[in-house]
Amino acid sequence: QVQLEESGGGSVQAGGSLRLSCAASGYIYSSYCMGWFRQAPGKKREGVVVIDRDGSTNYADSVKGRFTISKDNAKNTLYLQMNSLKAEDTAMYYCAADPGTWCSLFSLIGFEYWGQGTQVTVSS
Fold first, then answer.
1. Of the N and C termini of the chain, which has fewer Cβ atoms inside 10 Å?
2. 67 near 59, Cβ under 8 Å?
């Protein structure tokens, strides 16, 4: 059974940094497309960044240059380094795994497995 568990969220001031982690179990990490998504209160869940099996990435325009996704296949862990945080980054952040071929930043289709989320709050 595939399980994902996020950690690393918290409260920071604008301009600060956080690093989120997503520990995976139950499957071979490197064989899945992985992504970070976020959902703010009253808004739809949106893609932040996805990373495909070959390491190619696709970032949302709103986070380009500030966020960096990485993964450690040996540790089965996905990371999201978030720098220069803004108040509008405040949301629940989720990691997700797509075992198929969609690997889309703009759709939740294909992402079959989700973590429980970790809250990020940025105060201005």
1. N
2. yes
